[in-house]
Specification:
- The protein is an alpha/beta fold.
- The chain folds into three domains: 58 residues, no CATH class; 238 residues, Aspartate Aminotransferase, domain 2 (3-Layer(aba) Sandwich), CATH 3.40.640.10; 133 residues, Aspartate Aminotransferase, domain 1 (Alpha-Beta Complex), CATH 3.90.1150.10.
- 39% of the residues lie in helices and 13% in strands.
- Bound molecules: pyridoxal-5'-phosphate (PLP).
Length: 449
Protein backbone atom coordinates (compact mmCIF):
# COMPACT_ATOMS: atom_id res chain seq x y z
CA UNK A 1 0.00 0.00 0.00
CA UNK A 2 1.17 3.51 -0.74
CA UNK A 3 2.21 5.63 2.21
CA UNK A 4 0.60 9.04 2.30
CA UNK A 5 3.04 11.85 2.87
CA UNK A 6 2.99 15.63 2.70
CA UNK A 7 5.64 15.74 -0.01
CA UNK A 8 3.43 13.78 -2.43
CA UNK A 9 0.27 15.51 -1.33
CA UNK A 10 1.18 19.18 -1.68
CA UNK A 11 2.09 19.28 -5.39
CA UNK A 12 -0.86 17.05 -6.17
CA UNK A 13 -3.32 19.26 -4.37
CA UNK A 14 -1.97 22.30 -6.22
CA UNK A 15 -2.43 20.50 -9.54
CA UNK A 16 -5.93 19.42 -8.66
CA UNK A 17 -6.96 22.90 -7.59
CA UNK A 18 -5.40 24.46 -10.70
CA UNK A 19 -7.48 22.10 -12.85
CA UNK A 20 -10.60 22.98 -10.91
CA UNK A 21 -11.25 19.37 -9.85
CA UNK A 22 -13.14 19.11 -6.58
CA UNK A 23 -15.13 16.44 -4.76
CA UNK A 24 -17.61 14.65 -5.27
CA UNK A 25 -15.32 12.67 -7.57
CA UNK A 26 -13.92 11.10 -4.39
CA UNK A 27 -15.93 8.25 -2.92
CA UNK A 28 -17.65 8.92 0.41
CA UNK A 29 -15.86 7.94 3.56
CA UNK A 30 -17.25 5.06 5.55
CA UNK A 31 -17.22 6.34 9.15
CA UNK A 32 -16.79 2.80 10.49
CA UNK A 33 -13.55 2.16 8.66
CA UNK A 34 -10.23 3.80 9.39
CA UNK A 35 -9.76 6.97 7.35
CA UNK A 36 -6.50 6.02 5.71
CA UNK A 37 -7.69 2.56 4.64
CA UNK A 38 -10.54 3.98 2.62
CA UNK A 39 -9.80 4.13 -1.10
CA UNK A 40 -11.57 6.43 -3.47
CA UNK A 41 -13.06 5.61 -6.84
CA UNK A 42 -10.48 6.68 -9.43
CA UNK A 43 -11.59 9.87 -11.13
CA UNK A 44 -11.58 10.37 -14.87
CA UNK A 45 -8.04 11.26 -15.81
CA UNK A 46 -6.59 10.61 -12.35
CA UNK A 47 -3.09 9.21 -12.57
CA UNK A 48 -3.05 6.32 -10.15
CA UNK A 49 -4.12 4.90 -6.83
CA UNK A 50 -1.41 6.80 -5.01
CA UNK A 51 -2.90 10.08 -6.16
CA UNK A 52 -6.33 8.96 -5.14
CA UNK A 53 -5.13 8.03 -1.69
CA UNK A 54 -3.58 11.45 -1.31
CA UNK A 55 -6.76 13.10 -2.45
CA UNK A 56 -8.76 11.01 -0.05
CA UNK A 57 -6.91 12.86 2.70
CA UNK A 58 -8.27 16.16 1.40
CA UNK A 59 -11.70 14.66 1.44
CA UNK A 60 -11.27 13.42 5.00
CA UNK A 61 -10.57 16.96 6.06
CA UNK A 62 -12.93 18.88 3.87
CA UNK A 63 -15.94 16.63 4.28
CA UNK A 64 -15.42 14.82 7.53
CA UNK A 65 -14.38 17.30 10.13
CA UNK A 66 -17.04 15.71 12.31
CA UNK A 67 -15.49 12.28 11.84
CA UNK A 68 -12.10 13.56 12.97
CA UNK A 69 -13.49 15.37 15.98
CA UNK A 70 -15.88 12.67 17.14
CA UNK A 71 -14.30 9.36 16.17
CA UNK A 72 -10.75 9.44 14.78
CA UNK A 73 -8.20 7.91 17.15
CA UNK A 74 -10.80 6.66 19.60
CA UNK A 75 -10.97 2.94 20.31
CA UNK A 76 -14.00 2.70 22.56
CA UNK A 77 -13.99 -1.11 22.76
CA UNK A 78 -10.77 -0.82 24.75
CA UNK A 79 -12.46 1.28 27.43
CA UNK A 80 -15.92 -0.22 28.06
CA UNK A 81 -17.63 1.68 25.23
CA UNK A 82 -17.13 4.94 27.13
CA UNK A 83 -17.93 7.86 24.82
CA UNK A 84 -15.38 10.10 26.51
CA UNK A 85 -11.92 8.51 26.51
CA UNK A 86 -10.23 7.84 29.85
CA UNK A 87 -7.50 10.04 31.28
CA UNK A 88 -4.64 7.56 31.44
CA UNK A 89 -2.89 9.30 34.31
CA UNK A 90 0.12 6.99 34.31
CA UNK A 91 3.72 7.98 33.78
CA UNK A 92 4.85 4.42 33.26
CA UNK A 93 3.78 1.42 31.16
CA UNK A 94 4.73 -2.21 31.89
CA UNK A 95 5.62 -5.06 29.49
CA UNK A 96 5.28 -8.83 30.04
CA UNK A 97 8.38 -9.87 28.13
CA UNK A 98 11.86 -8.57 27.44
CA UNK A 99 11.08 -8.94 23.73
CA UNK A 100 8.12 -6.54 23.98
CA UNK A 101 10.11 -4.05 26.07
CA UNK A 102 12.97 -4.20 23.55
CA UNK A 103 10.51 -3.50 20.73
CA UNK A 104 8.98 -0.58 22.65
CA UNK A 105 12.42 1.06 22.93
CA UNK A 106 12.59 1.18 19.13
CA UNK A 107 9.12 2.74 18.68
CA UNK A 108 8.79 5.28 21.46
CA UNK A 109 6.88 7.74 19.30
CA UNK A 110 4.04 5.24 18.75
CA UNK A 111 4.21 2.87 21.74
CA UNK A 112 3.26 3.74 25.33
CA UNK A 113 6.50 3.28 27.24
CA UNK A 114 6.83 6.46 29.31
CA UNK A 115 4.53 9.49 29.23
CA UNK A 116 7.33 11.94 28.34
CA UNK A 117 7.22 10.17 24.96
CA UNK A 118 3.70 8.92 24.40
CA UNK A 119 0.55 8.34 26.41
CA UNK A 120 -2.79 6.82 25.29
CA UNK A 121 -4.86 9.95 26.05
CA UNK A 122 -2.32 12.21 24.38
CA UNK A 123 -2.16 9.85 21.40
CA UNK A 124 -5.86 10.29 20.62
CA UNK A 125 -5.33 14.04 20.66
CA UNK A 126 -2.25 13.80 18.42
CA UNK A 127 -4.17 11.83 15.80
CA UNK A 128 -7.05 14.30 15.72
CA UNK A 129 -4.80 17.38 15.59
CA UNK A 130 -2.70 15.91 12.76
CA UNK A 131 -5.81 15.02 10.75
CA UNK A 132 -7.32 18.48 11.31
CA UNK A 133 -4.18 20.09 9.88
CA UNK A 134 -3.64 17.55 7.07
CA UNK A 135 -0.28 16.74 8.69
CA UNK A 136 1.29 13.29 9.12
CA UNK A 137 1.77 13.67 12.85
CA UNK A 138 1.45 16.07 15.77
CA UNK A 139 3.33 16.65 19.01
CA UNK A 140 1.59 18.32 21.93
CA UNK A 141 3.64 20.46 24.29
CA UNK A 142 3.15 22.08 27.69
CA UNK A 143 2.80 25.49 26.01
CA UNK A 144 2.83 27.22 22.65
CA UNK A 145 6.20 28.72 23.58
CA UNK A 146 7.61 25.19 24.10
CA UNK A 147 6.33 24.08 20.66
CA UNK A 148 7.82 27.18 18.98
CA UNK A 149 11.17 26.71 20.75
CA UNK A 150 11.30 23.05 19.73
CA UNK A 151 10.51 23.88 16.10
CA UNK A 152 13.19 26.57 15.90
CA UNK A 153 15.89 24.80 17.89
CA UNK A 154 15.49 21.56 15.92
CA UNK A 155 16.38 23.46 12.74
CA UNK A 156 19.42 25.43 13.82
CA UNK A 157 22.92 24.83 15.11
CA UNK A 158 25.71 27.23 16.10
CA UNK A 159 26.50 29.51 13.17
CA UNK A 160 23.05 29.26 11.56
CA UNK A 161 20.69 32.10 10.76
CA UNK A 162 16.91 32.48 10.87
CA UNK A 163 14.73 34.91 8.91
CA UNK A 164 11.62 35.79 10.85
CA UNK A 165 8.69 38.06 10.20
CA UNK A 166 8.49 41.35 12.13
CA UNK A 167 6.42 41.50 15.31
CA UNK A 168 5.87 37.80 15.97
CA UNK A 169 4.61 36.73 19.40
CA UNK A 170 6.78 38.48 22.01
CA UNK A 171 8.47 35.32 23.33
CA UNK A 172 9.30 34.24 19.77
CA UNK A 173 11.12 37.55 19.37
CA UNK A 174 12.95 36.95 22.65
CA UNK A 175 13.90 33.41 21.60
CA UNK A 176 15.41 34.68 18.36
CA UNK A 177 16.93 37.95 19.50
CA UNK A 178 18.00 37.24 23.09
CA UNK A 179 18.15 33.50 23.79
CA UNK A 180 19.53 31.83 20.65
CA UNK A 181 22.40 34.33 20.10
CA UNK A 182 23.90 32.78 23.28
CA UNK A 183 24.37 29.61 21.23
CA UNK A 184 25.69 31.33 18.10
CA UNK A 185 22.39 31.47 16.20
CA UNK A 186 21.41 34.82 14.68
CA UNK A 187 18.14 36.12 13.26
CA UNK A 188 16.92 38.89 10.96
CA UNK A 189 13.39 40.21 11.38
CA UNK A 190 11.74 41.46 8.19
CA UNK A 191 8.49 42.88 6.85
CA UNK A 192 6.82 39.65 5.72
CA UNK A 193 4.07 41.31 3.67
CA UNK A 194 6.40 41.05 0.65
CA UNK A 195 7.63 37.44 0.13
CA UNK A 196 10.77 38.71 -1.61
CA UNK A 197 11.91 40.22 1.72
CA UNK A 198 12.52 36.66 2.97
CA UNK A 199 14.78 36.02 -0.02
CA UNK A 200 16.61 39.32 0.39
CA UNK A 201 17.38 38.62 4.08
CA UNK A 202 18.55 35.07 3.42
CA UNK A 203 22.24 34.38 3.96
CA UNK A 204 24.27 31.30 2.99
CA UNK A 205 23.81 30.04 6.59
CA UNK A 206 20.02 30.58 6.74
CA UNK A 207 18.23 27.34 7.61
CA UNK A 208 14.77 28.49 8.69
CA UNK A 209 12.10 31.04 7.75
CA UNK A 210 9.72 31.70 10.62
CA UNK A 211 6.25 33.10 9.90
CA UNK A 212 3.26 34.17 11.92
CA UNK A 213 0.20 35.02 9.87
CA UNK A 214 -1.67 37.01 10.88
CA UNK A 215 0.18 38.33 13.90
CA UNK A 216 -2.10 38.89 16.83
CA UNK A 217 -1.96 42.65 17.33
CA UNK A 218 -1.79 44.43 13.97
CA UNK A 219 -2.54 41.34 11.83
CA UNK A 220 -0.01 41.67 8.98
CA UNK A 221 -0.18 38.59 6.76
CA UNK A 222 2.36 36.61 4.82
CA UNK A 223 1.52 34.86 1.53
CA UNK A 224 1.98 31.26 2.66
CA UNK A 225 2.05 29.52 -0.75
CA UNK A 226 4.41 32.05 -2.30
CA UNK A 227 6.82 31.93 0.64
CA UNK A 228 6.69 28.12 0.84
CA UNK A 229 7.62 27.90 -2.86
CA UNK A 230 10.51 30.34 -2.46
CA UNK A 231 11.81 28.43 0.58
CA UNK A 232 11.54 25.02 -1.09
CA UNK A 233 13.55 26.24 -4.06
CA UNK A 234 16.34 27.19 -1.62
CA UNK A 235 16.18 24.11 0.62
CA UNK A 236 15.07 26.23 3.59
CA UNK A 237 12.59 24.95 6.18
CA UNK A 238 9.47 27.01 6.88
CA UNK A 239 7.58 27.18 10.17
CA UNK A 240 4.41 29.16 10.85
CA UNK A 241 2.64 30.18 14.02
CA UNK A 242 -0.99 29.57 13.01
CA UNK A 243 -2.51 30.33 16.43
CA UNK A 244 -4.74 33.11 15.09
CA UNK A 245 -6.63 30.94 12.57
CA UNK A 246 -6.29 27.32 13.80
CA UNK A 247 -5.82 24.51 11.28
CA UNK A 248 -9.52 24.73 10.48
CA UNK A 249 -9.18 28.39 9.54
CA UNK A 250 -5.92 28.25 7.59
CA UNK A 251 -4.46 25.23 5.78
CA UNK A 252 -0.75 25.98 6.17
CA UNK A 253 0.52 22.46 5.51
CA UNK A 254 -1.49 22.21 2.29
CA UNK A 255 -0.03 25.55 1.21
CA UNK A 256 3.43 24.00 1.48
CA UNK A 257 4.63 25.10 4.92
CA UNK A 258 6.80 22.48 6.65
CA UNK A 259 5.96 23.05 10.32
CA UNK A 260 2.69 24.43 11.67
CA UNK A 261 2.58 25.66 15.27
CA UNK A 262 -0.14 26.72 17.66
CA UNK A 263 -0.59 28.11 21.08
CA UNK A 264 -3.30 25.58 21.98
CA UNK A 265 -3.94 27.66 25.07
CA UNK A 266 -6.06 29.77 22.68
CA UNK A 267 -8.87 28.33 20.50
CA UNK A 268 -7.98 24.63 20.78
CA UNK A 269 -8.32 24.52 24.56
CA UNK A 270 -10.76 27.41 24.32
CA UNK A 271 -11.87 27.79 27.95
CA UNK A 272 -8.97 29.70 29.54
CA UNK A 273 -8.04 26.72 31.69
CA UNK A 274 -5.20 24.96 29.84
CA UNK A 275 -1.77 26.08 28.62
CA UNK A 276 -0.56 23.90 25.72
CA UNK A 277 1.17 23.97 22.33
CA UNK A 278 0.95 22.00 19.07
CA UNK A 279 3.59 21.18 16.45
CA UNK A 280 2.51 19.60 13.15
CA UNK A 281 4.42 18.34 10.14
CA UNK A 282 5.60 15.41 8.05
CA UNK A 283 6.50 12.07 9.62
CA UNK A 284 10.19 12.81 9.06
CA UNK A 285 10.10 16.27 10.66
CA UNK A 286 7.99 15.23 13.63
CA UNK A 287 10.10 12.11 14.30
CA UNK A 288 13.24 14.22 14.25
CA UNK A 289 11.79 16.69 16.77
CA UNK A 290 10.34 13.88 18.90
CA UNK A 291 13.80 12.32 19.27
CA UNK A 292 15.53 15.64 20.00
CA UNK A 293 13.83 18.74 21.48
CA UNK A 294 10.57 17.04 22.49
CA UNK A 295 12.12 14.26 24.58
CA UNK A 296 15.19 16.23 25.66
CA UNK A 297 13.49 19.40 26.85
CA UNK A 298 10.56 17.32 28.03
CA UNK A 299 8.00 20.11 27.82
CA UNK A 300 5.05 17.76 27.33
CA UNK A 301 1.33 18.11 27.94
CA UNK A 302 -0.10 16.15 30.90
CA UNK A 303 -2.73 13.43 30.20
CA UNK A 304 -5.23 15.49 32.18
CA UNK A 305 -4.71 18.60 30.02
CA UNK A 306 -4.76 16.44 26.87
CA UNK A 307 -8.15 15.15 27.96
CA UNK A 308 -9.42 18.70 28.51
CA UNK A 309 -8.23 19.56 25.02
CA UNK A 310 -10.02 16.53 23.58
CA UNK A 311 -13.18 17.75 25.25
CA UNK A 312 -12.67 21.24 23.81
CA UNK A 313 -12.06 19.88 20.31
CA UNK A 314 -15.63 18.53 20.19
CA UNK A 315 -16.92 22.10 20.08
CA UNK A 316 -14.07 23.80 18.21
CA UNK A 317 -15.93 24.34 14.90
CA UNK A 318 -19.08 25.52 16.69
CA UNK A 319 -17.11 27.93 18.85
CA UNK A 320 -15.18 29.28 15.87
CA UNK A 321 -18.39 29.85 13.95
CA UNK A 322 -20.03 31.74 16.82
CA UNK A 323 -16.90 33.77 17.55
CA UNK A 324 -16.62 34.83 13.89
CA UNK A 325 -20.29 35.86 13.76
CA UNK A 326 -20.07 37.78 17.04
CA UNK A 327 -16.84 39.50 16.01
CA UNK A 328 -18.27 40.64 12.67
CA UNK A 329 -21.12 42.40 14.53
CA UNK A 330 -18.85 44.06 17.10
CA UNK A 331 -16.37 45.12 14.40
CA UNK A 332 -19.22 46.68 12.38
CA UNK A 333 -20.37 48.59 15.49
CA UNK A 334 -16.86 49.86 16.20
CA UNK A 335 -16.23 50.87 12.58
CA UNK A 336 -19.31 53.08 12.65
CA UNK A 337 -18.77 54.60 16.08
CA UNK A 338 -17.85 58.33 16.10
CA UNK A 339 -15.32 57.84 18.93
CA UNK A 340 -13.39 55.20 16.97
CA UNK A 341 -10.52 56.33 14.76
CA UNK A 342 -9.68 53.04 13.05
CA UNK A 343 -10.37 49.31 13.28
CA UNK A 344 -7.88 46.71 12.08
CA UNK A 345 -9.47 43.35 11.19
CA UNK A 346 -8.27 41.07 8.35
CA UNK A 347 -11.77 40.40 6.97
CA UNK A 348 -12.69 44.10 6.85
CA UNK A 349 -12.78 45.41 3.28
CA UNK A 350 -10.45 48.30 4.18
CA UNK A 351 -7.78 45.96 5.62
CA UNK A 352 -4.50 46.51 3.74
CA UNK A 353 -4.14 42.82 2.79
CA UNK A 354 -7.85 42.02 2.47
CA UNK A 355 -7.44 40.04 -0.78
CA UNK A 356 -4.69 37.85 0.62
CA UNK A 357 -6.74 37.28 3.78
CA UNK A 358 -9.68 36.15 1.64
CA UNK A 359 -7.41 33.93 -0.44
CA UNK A 360 -5.66 32.01 2.30
CA UNK A 361 -7.83 32.29 5.44
CA UNK A 362 -11.05 30.32 5.60
CA UNK A 363 -11.91 31.96 8.86
CA UNK A 364 -11.12 35.17 10.70
CA UNK A 365 -10.91 35.05 14.46
CA UNK A 366 -12.14 36.97 17.45
CA UNK A 367 -9.18 39.36 17.64
CA UNK A 368 -9.32 42.88 16.26
CA UNK A 369 -7.60 46.13 17.17
CA UNK A 370 -9.10 49.61 17.38
CA UNK A 371 -7.63 53.04 17.95
CA UNK A 372 -10.07 55.25 19.80
CA UNK A 373 -10.39 59.04 19.71
CA UNK A 374 -8.86 59.65 23.12
CA UNK A 375 -6.95 62.84 23.85
CA UNK A 376 -4.68 61.21 26.40
CA UNK A 377 -3.92 58.01 28.29
CA UNK A 378 -6.32 59.00 31.09
CA UNK A 379 -9.23 58.89 28.61
CA UNK A 380 -8.16 55.48 27.32
CA UNK A 381 -8.04 54.27 30.92
CA UNK A 382 -11.53 55.67 31.62
CA UNK A 383 -12.88 53.76 28.61
CA UNK A 384 -11.13 50.48 29.47
CA UNK A 385 -11.85 50.63 33.20
CA UNK A 386 -15.48 51.43 32.38
CA UNK A 387 -16.06 48.24 30.40
CA UNK A 388 -17.86 45.64 32.46
CA UNK A 389 -18.48 42.76 30.05
CA UNK A 390 -14.86 42.63 28.84
CA UNK A 391 -12.08 41.25 31.02
CA UNK A 392 -8.66 42.85 30.89
CA UNK A 393 -6.37 39.87 30.23
CA UNK A 394 -3.74 38.67 27.77
CA UNK A 395 -4.61 35.15 26.63
CA UNK A 396 -7.40 35.09 24.05
CA UNK A 397 -9.30 32.22 22.42
CA UNK A 398 -11.57 31.35 25.34
CA UNK A 399 -15.28 31.87 25.92
CA UNK A 400 -14.87 35.34 27.43
CA UNK A 401 -14.35 38.67 25.69
CA UNK A 402 -11.17 40.55 26.51
CA UNK A 403 -9.29 43.74 25.95
CA UNK A 404 -5.70 44.84 26.29
CA UNK A 405 -4.74 48.49 25.74
CA UNK A 406 -1.25 49.33 24.46
CA UNK A 407 -0.95 52.01 27.14
CA UNK A 408 -0.70 49.15 29.68
CA UNK A 409 2.64 48.13 28.09
CA UNK A 410 4.40 51.28 29.10
CA UNK A 411 5.10 52.78 32.52
CA UNK A 412 5.46 56.19 30.88
CA UNK A 413 2.02 57.79 30.42
CA UNK A 414 3.24 60.10 27.69
CA UNK A 415 4.45 57.17 25.58
CA UNK A 416 4.30 57.69 21.81
CA UNK A 417 4.93 54.82 19.46
CA UNK A 418 4.18 54.68 15.74
CA UNK A 419 3.28 50.96 15.72
CA UNK A 420 1.52 50.75 19.09
CA UNK A 421 0.09 54.25 19.78
CA UNK A 422 -1.26 54.97 23.25
CA UNK A 423 -4.90 54.95 22.05
CA UNK A 424 -4.78 51.41 20.58
CA UNK A 425 -6.76 48.60 22.17
CA UNK A 426 -6.80 44.96 21.18
CA UNK A 427 -10.17 43.30 21.64
CA UNK A 428 -11.01 39.62 21.67
CA UNK A 429 -14.63 38.63 21.16
CA UNK A 430 -15.78 35.44 22.84
CA UNK A 431 -19.08 33.59 23.00
CA UNK A 432 -21.26 36.22 24.63
CA UNK A 433 -24.16 37.71 22.67
CA UNK A 434 -22.78 40.59 20.56
CA UNK A 435 -25.65 42.87 21.67
CA UNK A 436 -24.49 42.43 25.28
CA UNK A 437 -20.95 43.44 24.31
CA UNK A 438 -22.06 46.34 22.13
CA UNK A 439 -24.21 47.77 24.94
CA UNK A 440 -21.17 47.62 27.20
CA UNK A 441 -18.96 49.39 24.63
CA UNK A 442 -21.60 52.11 24.18
CA UNK A 443 -21.74 52.91 27.89
CA UNK A 444 -17.93 52.94 28.20
CA UNK A 445 -17.63 55.39 25.26
CA UNK A 446 -20.18 57.65 27.00
CA UNK A 447 -18.02 57.67 30.15
CA UNK A 448 -15.07 58.95 28.10
CA UNK A 449 -16.71 62.26 27.13
C1 LIG B 1 0.41 34.12 18.54
C2 LIG B 1 0.92 33.40 19.74
N1 LIG B 1 1.85 32.45 19.58
C3 LIG B 1 2.36 31.79 20.63
C4 LIG B 1 1.96 32.06 21.91
C5 LIG B 1 2.59 31.32 23.05
O1 LIG B 1 1.71 30.36 23.51
P1 LIG B 1 1.63 29.89 25.04
O2 LIG B 1 1.18 31.05 25.83
O3 LIG B 1 0.64 28.77 24.98
O4 LIG B 1 2.99 29.45 25.42
C6 LIG B 1 0.98 33.02 22.13
C7 LIG B 1 0.53 33.29 23.51
O5 LIG B 1 -0.09 34.25 23.84
C8 LIG B 1 0.46 33.73 21.02
O6 LIG B 1 -0.46 34.69 21.17
Amino acid sequence: MFEWSISTFQPLLKKVRAEGLEPPWIAPLDPKSSASANFATPAKGSANVKEMLCLQKTYVWSMDLSYIINHLGEDREKYFGAVAPPIVQSSNFAFDTVEKLREAFTQEQEVNLYTRGNNPTVEILRKKLAALAGADDALVFASGAAAISAAVMSHVKAGDHVVCVNKPYSWTTKLLQEYLPRFGVTATLIDGTNPQNFVAATQPNTTLWFLETPNTFTFELQDLSAIADLAKARGITTAVDNSYCTSIGQRCIEMGIDIELHSASKYYAGHSDVVAGILLGSKKTVSHIFKTEFQNMGGIISPNDAWLMLRSLRTLPVRLEKIAANTAKVVAFMQNHPQVEKVIYPFSKNFAQYELAQKQMKWCGGLFTATIKAKNVAQVETFCDGLQAFLMAVSWGGHESLLIPTCSFYPNHGYQHEVFPFNMIRFYIGLEEPEFLIADLKQAFQKMV
